[in-house]
Design a protein that fits this description.
Layout lengths: L14 E5 L27 H13 L4 E5 L9 H9 L6 E6 L4 H11 L3 E5 L5 H8 L4 H14 L5 E5 L9 H10 L3 E5 L12 H4 L3 H9 L5 E2 L9 E4 L7 E5 L12 E4 L4 E3 L7 E3 H7 L4 H13 L19 H4 L2
Parallel strand pairs: 1-2, 1-10, 2-3, 3-4, 4-5, 5-6, 6-9
Antiparallel strand pairs: 7-8, 8-9, 10-11, 11-12
Helix pairs in contact: 1-2, 1-10, 2-3, 3-5
The chain binds S-adenosylmethionine and iron/sulfur cluster (SF4).
């Protein structure tokens, strides 16, 4: 069955990214301010509410759900939630994005719960630099988390790297070599103007995917590939390397809106129709106003998706274009 969620441009929406918390144990410089105020708990969707919304999405034809945040592994009860969502009939895959800090403790549980794939953020292999980018992170813990995930049985783990000029662009070749040595996929992300930060100038730090490719090509040849994981990455391969794909997420230099198949749910229960737009729908309000009436949610979803805007237009300057921080949005 195709998805019943179809927008006004004929795009079928079959992928939802759900943020299960806005909280995080890191404060990555591109994602958060140093001093963050998080949502009061009653404003965040409860586990049952998250499950009910997932159930409605899947009932309408959504095939893939990604749990994200904030940091999903700081949410109490995350493994049980994964288990329930993964067993929804019709869902093809439940996947999760994490900073890896708690993965050592959760990898077995997540794998057993039916999570199919993991994306793990890793912006540097230098412990001091890793600390300065994440402000609080411990590289050794994240590396132990990656190993634990592999030991638990996860295949196709993908590393996510946000590349910033003068910060970690010199590590691009080393990160690729780390991915190859550990049989991991790796995606390089262009920084997006989500939320107001003062730690660095996003314009000065901007490093395009074409520049990152150039850095990799100093060491390896790259061949473009037609593969997709139904996300925004475009993939390249290094001839002779079978277990590592190199992805690029390029919201600035390669607009991926025409093939957009996804929407996002924030931790406070707002459905966001587009990453670069504020348009949305307050699903939490409907859930709490009409408990036990899932048809209300389904109708609201069908109506909202029909109004999904065409796309985003991130310009490359320091203007804040979307006030939400990425931890609110669900990356
Ligand atoms: N805490 C988890 C993590 O870091 O993987 C999941 C949530 S995080 C918001 C999801 C992804 O968004 C991460 O790969 C992170 O690097 C990326 N991200 C955060 N802020 C960003 C920004 N302003 N531009 C581009 N990517 C960003
Ligand atoms: Fe936390 Fe992920 Fe944002 Fe870093 S990118 S602060 S790990 S939510």
């Amino acid at each position: 069955m195709g998805s019943l969620l179809q927008d006004g441009f004929g795009r079928q929406i079959d992928y939802v990214r759900m943020s299960v918390t806005d909280r995080c144990d890191f404060r990555c410089v591109y994602c958060m301010a140093e001093d963050m105020t998080f949502l009061p708990r009653q404003q965040v969707l409860g586990l049952e509410e998250l499950y009910l919304l997932a159930e409605q999405f899947v009932g309408l034809g959504v095939k893939k759900i990604r749990l994200t945040g904030g940091e999903p592994l700081v949410r109490n009860g995350i493994v049980g939630l994964c288990e329930r969502i993964a067993s929804l009939p019709g869902l093809r895959e439940l996947v999760l994005t994490t900073n890896g800090s708690q993965l050592k403790h959760y990898a077995d549980g997540l794998f057993g719960a039916g999570v199919k794939r993991l994306n793990i953020s890793l912006d540097s292999l230098d412990a001091e630099r890793f600390r300065s980018i994440t402000r609080t992170g411990d590289l050794a813990q994240v590396l132990a988390g990656i190993s634990a995930a592999q030991d638990a049985g996860f295949a196709h783990i993908k590393l996510n790297v946000v590349v910033m000029k003068g910060r970690n662009d010199d590590e691009v070749p080393a990160l690729v070599d780390f991915a190859i040595a550990n049989r991991l996929d790796i995606s390089f992300i262009e920084e997006m103007p989500l939320g107001s930060i003062s730690e660095h100038s996003r314009a000065e730090a901007f490093c395009s995917s074409a520049e990152v490719r150039g850095l990799i090509e100093q060491r390896h040849s790259l061949v473009e590939s037609a593969e997709s994981t139904q996300g925004p990455s475009r993939y390249w391969r290094i001839p002779g390397v079978d277990n590592t794909r190199i992805g690029f997420i390029s919201p600035h230099s390669h607009n991926f809106c025409s093939s957009c198949n996804r929407v996002r749910l924030t931790a406070e229960g707002r459905l966001l129709l587009c990453l670069g737009n504020e348009q949305g729908l307050d699903l939490k309000a409907i859930l709490r106003r009409y408990p036990g009436e899932p048809a209300r949610i389904r109708d609201a979803l069908l109506g909202a998706i029909a109004r999904k805007p065409w796309g985003h237009d991130f310009r490359r300057n320091d203007e804040v274009q979307v006030l939400r921080f990425m931890n609110m949005t669900g990356g």
